[in-house]
Amino acid sequence: KAIGKSRSMEMTLTGDFMDAEEAAMRGLVSRVVKKEQCVDEALKVAQKICSKSKPITAMAKECVNQAFEMNLQQGLKFERRVFHATFGTEDRKEGMTAFAEKVKAKWTDN
């Protein structure tokens, strides 16, 4: 579904592969880097993700994953429930305060 029926059919019937640039253009990969930069770039992304609140990151990840399994109405309902669940976390309060005060949040992962 991600690449469309016609491209999928062409690749299946011809045995052609997709290069990294086309995969990025179609949104199948988030970025393309040189082979020798791959591990460094992956670690940079991982470090950036790890610098965020773990429970809020997990909730956000679940929202993105569920969005691809639901229709729009179901997805919005799911996201609203998750958003309300964030109000039970200390990190939501910290994040909102840090944003309002224009300072870096100090996550507690609670």
From TrEMBL:
Which InterPro entries does the annotation name?
Answer: ClpP/crotonase-like_dom_sf, Enoyl-CoA_hydra/iso, Enoyl-CoA_hydra_C
What sections of the protein cross the membrane? Answer: none
Record keyword NAD present: no
> Which superkingdom?
Eukaryota
Instruction: Provide GO CC annotations from the record.
Output: mitochondrion
Q: Name one Pfam family in it.
A: ECH_1
Q: Which UniProt keywords apply?
A: Lyase
The Gene Ontology biological process annotation of the record reads: fatty acid beta-oxidation
Give the Gene Ontology MF terms in alphabetical order: hydro-lyase activity
**The family this protein is said to belong to:** Belongs to the enoyl-CoA hydratase/isomerase family.
| PANTHER family per the UniProt record, alphabetical | ENOYL-COA HYDRATASE, MITOCHONDRIAL, ENOYL-COA HYDRATASE-RELATED
Q: What is this protein called?
A: Enoyl-CoA hydratase
